[in-house]
Amino acid sequence: MTLQQAAVVKALAQIEMIFTFASSVFFFREHINRTEVAGCFLIVAGIVLLVLL
């Protein structure tokens, strides 16, 4: 077990939320609205920014 920065651990939790959205669309055929799609893009952008810095 290693000690990591809290931001990296929170980023992993955000990735889990994106997989939840993807599974609800592909497996359960749920429709998500534009606000949820925009939120997913913002999460991905934040994670990429975190990894690059």
Please provide the count of β strands.
Answer: 0
Task: Classify the secondary structure makeup into a structural class.
Answer: mainly alpha
Distance between the termini: 23 Å
Biggest sheet descriptor: none
Q: What is the number of helices?
A: 2
Rg of Cα set: 13 Å
Portion of residues in beta strands equals under 5%
What level of helicity do the residues show? over 70%
| Contiguous runs where pLDDT drops below 50 for at least 5 residues | none
Query: What is the mean predicted local confidence, pLDDT?
Result: 82
SSE string? HH
Question: Summary?
Answer:
The chain is mainly α.
How would you describe what is shown here?
- With 53 residues, the chain is mostly helical.
- It has one domain.
- Helices cover 75% and strands 0% of the residues.
- It is built from 2 helices and no strands.
- Helix 1 packs antiparallel against helix 2.
- The longest helix is centred in the N-terminal third of the chain and has 21 residues, at 6-26.
- The protein is elongated and about 40 Å long.
- 0% of the residues are buried.
- The mean pLDDT is 82.
Features:
75% helix; 53 residues
What's the SSE blueprint?
Blueprint lengths: L5 H21 L7 H19 L1
Helix pairs in contact: 1-2
